[in-house]
Write a structure and sequence with these properties.
alpha+beta; eight-stranded antiparallel β-sheet; 40% strand; 7 helices; Protein Yojf, Chain: A; five-stranded mixed β-sheet; Trna Endonuclease, Chain: A, domain 1
Length: 262
Amino acid sequence: MQTKNNKLAVLKEPTLAEAAVLIERAFAQRHTLLVAGNCHVHYDGRASSTLENGERFIIVKSDGSLLVHRPTGYEPVNWQPAGGVFTVEVNDDKLEIQGIRSKPHERVKVTFNEVLLVSALSLFDAGEFLLHASEDDMHRAILLKPSLFEEGFKPISWEKHVEPGFIDIYGEDKDGRLVIVEVKRRAATKEAALQLSKYIEPIKAKVNRPVRAVLAAPSLGKDVQRLLVTLGLEYKVLDPKDCALVLKKSGTSKLESFFNSQ
């Protein structure tokens, strides 16, 4: 079966010769190839390995990378990075797909004695990958880059225990005032504002200086701004995507350094 726009070609339970024709065409046109069936895999390169016969599927991508997958698990049981050159041939009632890379030299050979499915796909993907952060990730991002929250902010701790619960971030602003920060990943609700207000008095009872309480979230829900004003609380815009980028660039080393210094 082949679609009218030549984006997809599929063979179900083909002969080995029929499968080889479509596979060879996919290699020539740099299409993404999927082959499912009973196969044996041998690899030489970074190490040497043999995978005995079993029903599994392989994916050869347009960049010359190869993945061998079992029916279960998300990780490939064998793989080869991009840059491989692939060939296919049928010998002695077996279909053999071979991929070779030169730098470093490595070779993978997949031998099918039965092919259940062959699919060749012409795919295009230029979409940008957008990484989003959880609330815990947002806490970590503020610790790594306090200016995400506010210029001059100095974190002291996170998940600080007080009688009503745990304060997400606890720190000090540039004027020496203590700051209680409640972080929300989505639009902050009235419940979040009320939760934050419960932390103020226990903190004020222990310190002899001004205390600010700030709700940090990408946006506010309906009528939350009015409630914040009534309760004497503040709001700061905090975008999960900005937090995710900080984590992506910084890794975990700076975060470990932060905790080791406390």
